[in-house]
Design goal:
5% strand, single chain, Arc Repressor Mutant, subunit A, 8 helices, 163 residues
Length: 163
């Protein structure tokens, strides 16, 4: 199963938020974090990486913040993975510091490389603008399911004590 990291989630959430602001408006990291219950330090770090990559710009000061400066229609999901420091390595043997004990006798290294390359190509074809502009009907179902799970947790006395 391919999963995205928290840093990638924070990057997408921040870009979605910044994209929803009117053009030219600077938005603080604190505002993004407060709106989406994100950790400040991790989100700030991700936005710094986006700045270094030229996706956003920042301005210091009381009225400072971040704004998108690169057309997100030209930034692929693969590009964003590289910016936040994630790598598409679907198996441990593809990493430089491979610790897999099967490497010497493995007979699927080439197919794994091929699959990894295909995933990378697939991710290069997904543009961030296109991804962020999607509104899935499943979103409401997921939110409803979460609301039920959250309500169930609130009914359990032990869960309340550990918060």
């Amino acid at each position: 199963m391919v999963r995205i990291t928290r840093d990638m989630e924070y990057a997408l959430i921040a870009l979605q938020y910044l994209q929803s602001e009117y053009p030219g408006k600077l938005t603080s990291v604190r505002r993004i974090c407060d709106a989406h219950d994100l950790p400040f330090d991790a989100t700030s770090h991700v936005l710094q990486r986006l700045k270094q990559a030229g996706v956003v710009r920042s301005q210091q000061g009381v009225n400072g913040g971040y704004q998108i400066v690169k057309d997100l229609a030209l930034v692929s999901y693969y590009d964003l993975l590289e910016v936040v420091g994630d790598q598409i390595k679907i198996a441990s043997c593809l990493a430089e510091n491979c610790t897999c004990h099967l490497v010497k006798s493995c007979n699927i290294i080439s197919p794994i490389i091929s699959l990894n390359d295909r995933l990378a190509e697939f991710y290069r074809g997904i543009m961030i603008k296109e991804l962020l502009d999607v509104r899935s009907a499943e979103e409401d179902l997921i939110r409803d399911r979460f609301a039920v799970v959250s309500a169930d947790r609130d009914d359990v006395p032990a869960a309340k004590e550990h918060r």
